[in-house]
Amino acid sequence: AAMTNHGVLDNVIMVSKLWWDARTPMCQTAIREAVAAGGRHTVELTYSVIEDLALPAFEARGVTMVTPTEAQWEQMRDAVLPGIKESYIEQNGERGRALLEGLEREIASYEN
């Protein structure tokens, strides 16, 4: 089995723009900080369950765990990502394409 971490979702909070804009800047800051703290706590708990319970259970059953290298990650992304993007756009049309392109631009802004 592979340790891919692809299932770790630290936190997603969604609210309406109307509701958000009605909050004071101090309240918005408090919400952002609380969500970030909750996300960190969720990740810590997730990893503690993996390390303390899941990995020992797998090992007890003779399962060998493998952590992909960065090169293996790149190979995996290169193999599957184009098909995933294509499928998403087929299912969601031009709006989906625009959303995907916006997401890719946002991700790129953090990588540079």
What does this entry look like structurally?
The chain is mainly alpha-helical and 112 residues long. It has two domains: 1-67; 69-112, no CATH class. It contains three helices and no strands. The longest helix has 42 residues, at 70-111.
Summarize the structure.
With 112 residues, the chain is mainly alpha-helical. The chain is 74% helix and 0% strand.
| Share of helix, binned | over 70%
Give the averaged pLDDT, no decimals.
Answer: 90
Rounded to the nearest angstrom, the radius of gyration is: 19 Å
Distance between the termini: 32 Å
Number of strands: 0
Poorly predicted regions: none
Biggest sheet character: none
Reading the helices and strands in chain order gives: HHH
Number of helices: 3
Structural class: mainly alpha
How many domains?
A: 2
Give the DSSP E fraction (strand runs of 2 or more residues): under 5%
General form: flat
